[in-house]
Amino acid sequence: SRKHVIAVGQLGPIMLAESKAEAVDRMIAMLREAHAQGAVWIVFPELALTTFFPRYIYETPEEYDRFFEEGLPSPAMRPLFAEAARLGVGFYLGYAEKVAEGGRMRRFNTSILVDRDGTVAGKYRKVHLPGTSEPVLKADFEHLEKRYFEVGDLGFNTFDTSIGRIGMCICNDRRWPETFRVMALQGAEMFMLGYNTPTRNIHHPEPAHLREFHHRLSIEAAAYQNGAWVFASAKCGAEDGFAMIGGSAIVAPTGESVARTAGEADEVICHNCDLGLGDYIRRTVFDFGRHRRIEHYGLITAT
Ligand code: CDT
């Protein structure tokens, strides 16, 4: 059957003083809860092991390297890998990656897919890095992803796993239709993503309700326009007073959200997902082979 129970494990706030081990314990508790509900996969948020540290200004790697992971699994991730493999549950996990490549130290905002047998099935490095590399004048918190991370260099790939073909992205990527279309063209049946979205936009005054609306609009459109499932997992609530939206969701290929979190704490949502549900969409209105008109899309990549 092409039906799988798939879960989203939303995280409430992780305070600056909280250890990675505590965050991992919270995820293991959600992993067990998802497994008890029959889930074979769980999606955790972006930068799920620590507070959303790009809101703070650090000057040197000595100050910010404690937020990063080296190796897979990194020492902090090991208990999560072990329990997931024991239960036979696959997962998506976002983390800050530090790696020596090409004779230098590189840092990325990264996500991985770990299959049900504990093997790493895929890696993605965030492409659309929002915010600035230098502080914004008079902001009470920052969004300094460009300061701490390089633009991802792995592209938008898809990965064949024991439950189907999965594409990954991270937070701001979900606002860009190109993200999902590139993966849909490679046959993605499921899109998995984590996010940390501040409730307030420090770059432009914006009605508060739009933050959650734009999030939902983006993932629902992505699901429908590509005939694929979307699993979106927030880290949310007030981290040391800095509020982030919840609204973790599972969206069917019809564009309808079939499960939503109710609060801004640790919370598991599950759905029995029929991977065939999007087939008719990809055979009809979004049959890429018959209806796409790429001769008219050149500007998208030319500028
Ligand atoms: N983590 C992340 O990418 N958050 C952004 C906030 C944008 S405001 C600079 C988002 O798009 O949700």
Automatic annotation (TrEMBL):
It holds the Pfam family CN_hydrolase. The keyword Hydrolase applies. It comes from the Bacteria. The keyword Hydrolase applies. This is N-carbamoyl-D-amino-acid hydrolase. Keywords: Hydrolase. Gene3D superfamilies: Carbon-nitrogen hydrolase. GO terms for molecular function: hydrolase activity. InterPro entries: Aliph_Amidase/BUP (IPR050345), C-N_Hydrolase (IPR003010), C-N_Hydrolase_sf (IPR036526). Residues 4-275 form the CN hydrolase domain.
